[in-house]
């Protein structure tokens, strides 16, 4: 695991360029033989389906199309937008919520452009299909204004959260990091009522995937985006 003292959420333009320069160095290294193994290397994003637990609803994420990882990181360093764009490819990330029919096929309910630059890292769908929640951004978990995004009926954005909306500066500083990301939690889910989002926040400086990782819970009311409790 490669660790780095990454800049705070509100980092300056100079630090942003340094941040992306580190990505560029890593990507070049990954493309040269022999390729070292980095735990936070990122494959190009692909279209993915996420299902509600009852499988009555499916949420399909179609990423913005990139020409390559190297092209993306190079453009980030030079400030070229949209970074890494594949000529003729999809210009934005798209989300499609579909409902299961009696024959097992899925019928679209709504389709929206997502707030992510390229794609979210993961998503969950409530059993009723009323809410979809996306998490993080491809290549940079824990960064940006849209670390958590709650979508409601018709794909309306109920609220977006950056880590600074959920945690104090001290709490954010204690989260485990790699060169690319802040590994702030895992296993996020809906409560039994389907009305609240439960975030599992890393609590003991361990990577969320570690067996001895500990978490505290943060509850968010889906209808309003109001943060209710921690525990």
Q: Measure the end-to-end span.
A: 29 Å
Kindly report the average pLDDT value: 87
Q: Could you give the count of β-strands? A: 12
Structure classification: alpha+beta
What's the story with the biggest beta sheet?
4 strands, antiparallel
Describe the protein:
This protein is an alpha+beta fold and 231 residues long. Helix content is 16%, strand content 27%. It has four helices and twelve strands. The strands form three sheets. Strands 1-2-3-4 form a four-stranded antiparallel β-sheet, with no helix packed on it. A hairpin with a 5-residue loop joins strand 1 and strand 2. Helix 1 packs antiparallel against helix 2. The protein is globular and about 50 Å long.
Outline:
The protein is built from four helices and twelve strands; from the N terminus they run αββαββββββααββββ. It has 231 residues and is an alpha+beta fold.
SSE order and pairing:
Blueprint lengths: L12 H19 L16 E4 L5 E6 L6 H10 L15 E7 L5 E8 L8 E4 L6 E4 L12 E4 L5 E5 L1 H4 L2 H5 L15 E2 L5 E7 L12 E7 L4 E5 L1
Antiparallel strand pairs: 1-2, 2-3, 3-4, 5-6, 6-7, 7-8, 9-10, 10-11, 11-12
Helix pairs in contact: 1-2
